[in-house]
Amino acid sequence: MAFDEVVAALDVHLDRSLAGVIVGEPELLERTAFTQPALFAIEVALSSVVPLRGDPGLSGGSFGG
């Protein structure tokens, strides 16, 4: 799943576009409501690229607080 697809799926749960926050309002990434979805979108997008490189060792996590 590409980054744009993940962002589109997440946007229905947010009060503004996640891509718009990442590009145009990065200060909002300090809010967990945007940080967690942004990290998830990036992790999913990266996981779709890594197998093409043949690197099965990538794993991710999330910090909660």
What does this structure look like?
The protein has 65 residues and is mainly α. It has one domain. The chain has three helices and no strands. The chain has helices at residues 3-11, 18-24, 32-53. Helix 1 (3-11) packs antiparallel against helix 3 (32-53). The N and C termini lie far apart (28 Å).
Report a brief summary of the structure:
The chain is an all-alpha fold.
Which keywords apply here?
65 residues; mainly alpha; 3 helices
Q: How many DSSP H or I helices? A: 3
Give the termini separation.
Answer: 28 Å
How many DSSP-defined strands?
0
Order of helices and strands: HHH
Let me know the largest β-sheet.
none
Q: What does the overall shape look like? A: globular
Domain module tally: 1
* Helix content, binned percent: 55-70%
In percent terms, what proportion of residues is strand? Answer: under 5%
Taking pLDDT < 50 over at least 5 consecutive residues as the criterion, the unreliable ranges are none
Q: Radius of gyration over alpha carbons?
A: 13 Å
Structural classification: mainly alpha
Mean pLDDT: 83
What is the topology?
Elements: H1 3-11, H2 18-24, H3 32-53
